[in-house]
Amino acid sequence: MRRLHISDSAIEDLRSISDYTWDTHGPDIHERYIGLLQTALSDLGEDPDRLGVRESVPGFIAYHLKHSKRTALAKGFRIDTPRHVVFFRVPSDGVVEIVRILHDSMDWRRHLKED
User: Angle 6-9-14 (CA atoms, 0-180°, nearest 5)?
Assistant: First the structure.
């Protein structure tokens, strides 16, 4: 398992997703969606070149949560239609740097900046 580094922006994204899911869908869906998010991050730590990973915005690699649905389901976290994409990089040190977690309907380029 590679080490993960989660940026401050991605942590804020997680908080926002968590709050919205709790307020809008209640505790059961919240628990399952957060479980799916955790599974996706773990999956990327295991293999950042896994099926479903693609470069979509120059300088960033995208991974839609739908690609971790099967793994999450095996852990009891069933979400039929996940709507978020994890954007990450893998610098030369091999650490998986989680940059943002954005809704799939957003204009990603507007929210992603090169360092």
Answer: 75
Q: Which two tokens stand for residue 69?
A: 């649905």
pLDDT digits 0-9 by tens, 34-86: 999 999 999 999 999 998 999 888 889 999 999 999 999 999 999 999 999 99
What are the tokens at 106? 């957003």
Strand spans (E) along the chain: 4-6, 53-57, 60-64, 84-89, 96-103
Among 48, 51, 57, residue whose Cα is nearest residue 98 = 48
Q: Which CATH class is domain 4-104?
A: alpha beta
Work out the widest C-alpha separation in the chain, in whole angstroms: 41
| Geometric angle at alpha carbon 66, from 14 and 111, rounded to 5° | 45
pTM: 0.92
Asked if 33 and 17 count as a contact pair (C-beta separation under 8 A), the reply is: yes
